[in-house]
Structure formats: C-alpha cells, structure tokens
Specification:
376 residues; globular
Length: 376
C-alpha cells in the first residue's frame, strides 16, 4: 500500500474531528453509563440539527438557482403574469414554448440528475471507504455510457432504449468489477478500484470504436451527449429522473443502517448482524442504477459524484454525508448549468464542461492531499 498512496481504506479524519473525537472519548470515560447515553443522545441531536440546517440552506439555494435558470436570458414578448402559469403548462404560444418546453425541463433535469449523481458517488464512497471510489472512477459511468451510445448510434428509435442500455451497461460493469476483485472469497477494495479503472478504459475504447461507425450527424449528437449536457431535456427525461430518484432514495434509506455498520469494518458489521455480502452487492447495484439512469438523460456529467460526498461530509460529518450528498449534487449541476448558459467567458458550453473545469483541479488536489496524508 505504500506504493499506492491514492487508494486508501477510508478518508482521513480532519484535525478538528480528531480533537472532537478525543474530547468526546475523554468525556465518555469520565461519565457513567447513564451520563454516557445522555452525551451520545445530545451529540446525535446536534448532528441531526446540523443536517436539517444544511438541507434547509441547500433547498433555498436550489430554489434560487431554479428561478435564475428559468428567468435568466430574458423573457422578451412574454408578459410577467404568464411566467408562473406557463411553468405549470397553463399557457399556450411563446410562453409555453420558452418556459414549459425548454427552460423548466432543462433546470429540473439538472437538479434531479445532479441529485442522482451525488447519491451514487456518496454510496460508493461510503461502501468502499475511499473518496476516489465513485462511479466515474471505477468505470460504472463508462459502462453506462457505452451501453447508451450503442443504442443512440445503432437503434435510436427504441422507446426507452437509451435508459435500458445505460442501466444494462452499468450492471455489466458492476458484475465484472465484483467478479474480478474478489480475493479469498471477499471483495478487495483496492482491487475493486484498480480493476474498475481498467475496465473503464475498455468501455471507453469500445465507445471510441463505435464513433468510427457513426455518420457525421450521429457523431455530433453523441459527442455532445458524452460531454454531459441537459440542453434539449424533455419532460419524459425529467419523469425518468424523478422516478429514479424516488426509488433510489427509498432503497438508500433501507440500506442506510447496514451501510453505517459496515463503516466499522466487515468483521464487526457481521458481528452486529449485518449481511455484509448482500448489503455490498445491493449498494453497488443501487449506485450503478442511479448513475446509469442519470447518465441516460444528461450524459456522463463528470466529477459530480466525486465532489458531492466530500462536500457533504465537510458540512455535516462523514456519518451523515450520504443523507446530504444528493442535495449537494443537485446544487453543483444546476449551478454549473446556469454558468454553462450565461457565465462570462464560458457560455454557451455543455454542462459537463463546466463541472469538469471545476472538478478536475479538485480531483488532482484530492490525490495530492491523500498522497501527503492530509485530510480529504
């Protein structure tokens, strides 16, 4: 492991967290059982309050970004009184076309897709205990993209074919990564990350091969999709993302307690009654499905899965980062889309170009800090 400083078993705690943990441990040693229970309950209530406050702040920020995305760019020839009714499909003509058919679906696709990417990234980071182990890095997004591009170029007329192919490609990648990363009957997290990176390269090579078979029109469409963009989002895509987020969010709530116990280590989690193998497989498939369904609508918007979990952990702590990461991902993608449309010196570009511009330096910084043993 000394030769691979990037791949670790878990994020290093910050110095503030270390001091807090030391103080809490000392307080627990000095207190009796009843006082210890009271201290733990108070700490839990404080953490829940921070989570509620963070969620409230992010929801307000999302509402502001949503309004900005819909209104920015001007509403020439659209009466102000028609804007809100048009958003609910209660107007016709220009107001309906601009607000209901173009701007609002785009903003909602960015919000919902970002939430799914954030959820998928936080699931993988919690499961593998590595801030670099996200669907982007371990090949899940590449597998989903390969499946989606296959349908886009070869059989684009199949209803929901892109969504189905993206999910199938992601699941195939998960199965291959799980199969090849097993050692001694258990999944080795280091092997999982490295093998995922290798298989991502294979999926990318397959996608590049498909490009050689595409005509100019199909190639231009797929290239824009592969960069990641919510331009041209439809209400059908928004519905797909909304249903996917509802299902994946519910499943994550069911898996939340087992995943929390697994953060203590597989052996201890098994001793506490957690089915480690089943939980790991379910979480891997759940994260793959969330990333694949988001990818099928928005394209593989890069680095959102990587950034959302660590940002959430900074706000509410590692234990509750999974609960906040979807909101963080939604804010990142929606803000990036506003910049992609209207940012000075940047617009107009695909949304994924903005997230890459922000996320790539963060990725390099994260690797450097992990290599130096600094907290991530």
């Amino acid at each position: 492991m000394a030769n691979h400083p990037v791949i670790t078993d878990g994020p290093a705690p910050s110095r503030t967290a270390e001091r807090a943990d030391t103080g809490s441990a000392a307080a627990v040693r000095r207190a009796g059982p009843a006082a210890t229970a009271a201290l733990l309950a108070a700490a839990r209530r404080g953490a829940n309050r921070r989570l509620a406050a963070a969620w409230s702040l992010l929801v307000l920020l999302l509402l502001a970004l949503l309004v900005t995305s819909v209104l920015m760019g001007g509403l020439r020839n659209i009466p102000a009184g028609d804007v809100l009714p048009a958003a609910f499909g209660m107007r016709t003509g220009l107001a309906d076309y601009v607000i209901h058919r173009i701007r609002l679906p785009r903003a909602l696709a960015a919000l919902l897709g970002g939430a799914l990417f954030g959820l998928a990234g936080a699931l993988y980071q919690r499961l593998i205990r590595n801030p670099l182990a996200t669907p982007d890095v371990v090949g899940i997004s590449a597998g989903a993209g390969a499946g989606a591009v296959t349908v886009l170029l070869l059989v684009p007329a199949i209803p929901y074919g892109v969504e189905a192919a993206a999910v199938a490609g992601a699941f195939v990648m998960v199965g291959a990564v799980l199969l090849l990363s097993r050692r001694g009957g258990k999944v080795d997290t280091y092997r999982l990350v490295v093998i995922g990176i290798g298989l991502a390269a294979v999926a990318t090579a397959y996608t590049n091969y498909l490009f050689t078979m595409a005509g100019e029109q199909g190639l231009a469409q797929v290239m824009r999709w592969l960069v990641g963009s919510v331009s041209g989002a439809t209400w059908e895509g928004v519905t797909t993302l909304a249903v996917a987020l509802a299902v994946c969010g519910t499943c994550t709530a069911v898996l939340y307690r087992p995943l929390t116990s697994m953060s203590l280590g597989d052996d201890l989690a098994s001793g506490l009654g957690t089915r480690v193998g089943g939980t790991r497989t379910a979480a891997l498939l759940l994260g793959a499905g969330a990333a694949a369904l988001a990818t099928s609508v928005t394209g593989p918007i890069g680095f959102v899965s990587l950034v959302s979990g660590p940002v959430a952990a900074r706000l509410v702590g590692t234990e509750r980062a999974l609960a906040l990461a979807p909101a963080v991902g939604a804010v990142i993608v929606l803000a990036a889309d506003v910049l992609a449309q209207h940012g000075p010196l940047v617009s107009p570009v695909p949304t994924g170009a903005v997230t890459a511009l922000i996320g790539a330096p963060y990725f390099v910084l994260l690797i450097l800090r992990r290599g130096q043993g600094a907290p991530s």
